[in-house]
Amino acid sequence: MGHGELRGVVALDGPSGTGKSSAARRLAAGLGARYLDTGAMYRAVTLAVLRAGVDLADPAGVAKVARDAVLVQGTDPNRSTTFLDGEDVGTEIRGPEVTLAVSPVSAVPEVRAQLVAEQRRIIAEALAEAGGIVVEGRDIGTAVVPDAPLKVYLTADAEARAQRRAKQDSASGRQSTLDATLADVQRRDTYDSTRAVSPLRAAGDAVVLDTTSLDLAGTLAALMDLVGDHGLLAQPSGRVHG
């Protein structure tokens, strides 16, 4: 992938069901940029922990599994891949067992430190090779890339997010009810926003974008406008707006 239109890092944070992943991938693809799904990395480590049979309440054991796991996260927005110990686990990490366990695993400080370091390495590589990258997660603007030129915090009311999640699960063949999905959304919101290390919150200089009444096209259009407003689009001459 050559240099695209995006120059720099776009950090997208927010809880699940805000349209963050779909919008991030489309934004990156439309601007010829790389894309990093940091949530997939935490899910892959969680899968490794579950496979190892380690108690989720054992932070030392969880951290050891994370250290030993060989995780490779792809950055192609048209085909985002996640490999764990040489195996493509992109589908398995979206299952209910991983979804239930990912919050406690991602709350372990050693796990976060390891993955943040790897995420920063991937981002630096993408900037050198492609010029720009869209990074999505829960602590991108606050911890991973606090100096990102554009930080956006996507939000939406819990009911709307649960409906979107349930629709995604159904489309992927995963069985769930709206009530169960809403309970899971609220559980993860509480867990992720109250953890001791890098809690889910908007960075002080982030643009807050409420997607409750926006579809994917509307969310993407709003993000495109923000990218342009922040001077992150390369001109034909190679110069950057601003």
UniProtKB/TrEMBL annotation:
EC identifiers of the protein: 2.7.4.25
GO biological processes: nucleobase-containing small molecule interconversion; pyrimidine nucleotide metabolic process
SUPFAM superfamilies registered for this protein in UniProt: P-loop containing nucleoside triphosphate hydrolases
Family classification: Belongs to the cytidylate kinase family. Type 1 subfamily.
Sample GO molecular function, one term: ATP binding
Catalytic activity as recorded in UniProt: dCMP + ATP = dCDP + ADP; CMP + ATP = CDP + ADP
Organism: Saccharothrix ecbatanensis
Subcellular location: Cytoplasm
Alphabetical UniProt keywords: ATP-binding, Cytoplasm, Kinase, Nucleotide-binding, Transferase
Protein name per its UniProtKB record: Cytidylate kinase
CDD domains: CMPK (cd02020)
Residue numbers spanned by region Disordered: 1-20
Domain Cytidylate kinase: start-end pairs: 10-225
NCBIfam families, per the entry: cmk
Pfam families in UniProt: Cytidylate_kin (PF02224)
